[in-house]
Design goal:
single chain; peptidase activity; alpha+beta; Band_7/SPFH_dom_sf; elongated; Band_7; Tetrahydropterin Synthase, Chain A; 8 helices; membrane
């Protein structure tokens, strides 16, 4: 009798546990930021993305894997101690010109296919981390140290993102890369960083001087162009004036020729006299005989008058006049 009661009690307990198991494993909830996959005897069904309460067969027939739809990030970079020295040696990389640098990289990703994320890889996050490491090392290995430390970071970041995206797609692990951010690229110790900083400052100073020189060159070029245009304008004005003057001279000569054609002798004589007036305005004229011998000449121009010569008598008269006054 006691054994039967024990068995009945044990059966009731087992039945109650089964009922509780059925009650608590036949439903699941999906939040708006989540997605689920129902697995039936190891086979995954279609992803459930609708939020709310959902039902399934009890465990162990079916189980639900709840995964987030949010964007995750993994950090691949170095760490520094209180003295500023690098303590994480895994991020050391060699550039294309054989310099050692340290990189600090952040990768943003999310789950786009829950079935592949669960079944296609045992450790998908580790695979993503290794792929990120391989991508950044490949890109840094084909870049120069100047590009890695200065203005080439954006290009390195873009190349790393493209390479990592292709790798993750080829692995087919249900992950999509949302973004790659190259936080920083550093040199391995403080002395090298200080030296390279000095080089960078010198390069910036050089670029500043080059820009100032180009600015001065542009200014002088504009001034020269302005002077050139002014000279051209002045020359064009002189050209136009000369042309108009030549046209006026042509018109005058045409009129003279018309008059000359009417009375050649008179016009010829008038032209000779006008020419002599222009060519010999201050000349002294001499009358010569036909044989060429010098003779007494008759001055045509008026001779300059000599100043009056003062005599003693005139001086005495002037003194008497002053005394009388």
């Amino acid at each position: 009798m006691g054994t039967k009661r024990i068995l009945v009690t044990l059966g009731l307990v087992i039945t109650g546990l089964l009922l509780l198991l059925i009650v608590f494993t036949t439903w699941y909830t999906v939040d708006e930021s989540e997605q689920a996959v129902v697995i039936s005897f190891g086979q995954a069904g279609e992803p459930v993305v609708e939020s709310g309460l959902h039902f399934k067969l009890p465990w162990p027939i079916q189980r639900a894997e709840i995964l987030s739809k949010e964007t995750y990030s993994i950090h691949f970079g170095y760490k520094q101690d209180k003295s500023g020295e690098i303590v994480d040696k895994e991020t050391k990389m060699i550039t294309g010109d054989e310099y050692i640098v340290l990189t600090d990289l952040t990768v943003q990703w999310r789950i786009v296919d829950p079935k592949k994320y669960i079944f296609n890889a045992e450790e998908p996050i580790e695979i993503l981390r290794d792929a990120a490491s391989a991508s950044i090392r490949s890109v840094i290995g084909s870049s120069t140290i100047d590009a890695a430390l200065t203005d080439g970071k954006a290009e390195i970041e873009a190349k790393t993102r493209d390479l990592l995206t292709n790798l993750v797609e080829s692995y087919d692990i249900g992950i999509a890369v949302q973004g790659v951010k190259l936080q920083d690229v550093e040199l391995p110790n403080a002395e090298v960083r200080a030296a390279f900083t000095a080089v960078t400052d010198a390069r910036e100073t050089k670029n500043t001087k080059i820009n100032e020189a180009k600015k001065y060159e542009n200014q002088k070029t504009k001034e020269a162009i302005g002077q050139r245009d002014a000279i051209k304008s002045e020359a064009q004005g002189k050209k136009t004036a000369r042309i108009e003057q030549a046209r006026g001279d042509v018109a005058v000569f045409s009129d003279l020729y018309t008059e000359y054609a009417k009375s050649k002798a008179i016009t010829r004589e008038r032209l000779i006299l006008e020419t002599l007036e222009q060519v010999l305005p201050k000349a002294n004229l001499y009358i010569m005989n036909d044989s060429g011998e010098t003779m007494k000449y008759l001055p045509i121009q008026q001779l300059p008058q000599a100043p009056p010569v003062e005599t003693k008598e005139s001086e005495q008269q002037a003194e008497k006049g002053e005394k009388a006054s």
